Amino acid sequence: MMRAIIAVSLLAAATPALARDPLGIFDRWGAFRDPSPLKCFAISTPVKPSSGGGNWRPFASIATWPGQNARAQLHIRLSHERDPRARVTISVGERRFELVAGNADAWAPDSRTDTAIVAAIRSGRSLSVETLGKSGRPFADVYALRGAATAIDAAALGCVGR
Q: What string of DSSP letters covers 47-74?
């Protein structure tokens, strides 16, 4: 548990920000607020990152951007650069969703899919993001979802009325 708190805190501290406000740590998930531009988000690191990845820390986040009129947007930072021809899929329980992706980042293709993924996360136990690496070898980043719903709610509340 302590290792998870340290990992989430270090991840948030490593992400560029002028003054990040912690909103809470909830098991393997943390909630934070960035003041400018205002953004509140829940974030976690993989339970066991794939070895041989990039020079960055992989994460899954759900963000609210009041100035952009965006709520509960998924952002995945993969542990490896992906093969540009490979699909990126996210699995939560029995639900599977295809994401749009760059070299090492992935997002839901639209707000409707964001909503469906967040609903699945709220009731799921684990989340897996799968694709092929640049080398052509498959990899998966796996996240525990305990605490995710509370962190998502804390992040959403952190931006209310601001």
A: SSPPTT--SS--EEEEEEEGGGTEEEEE
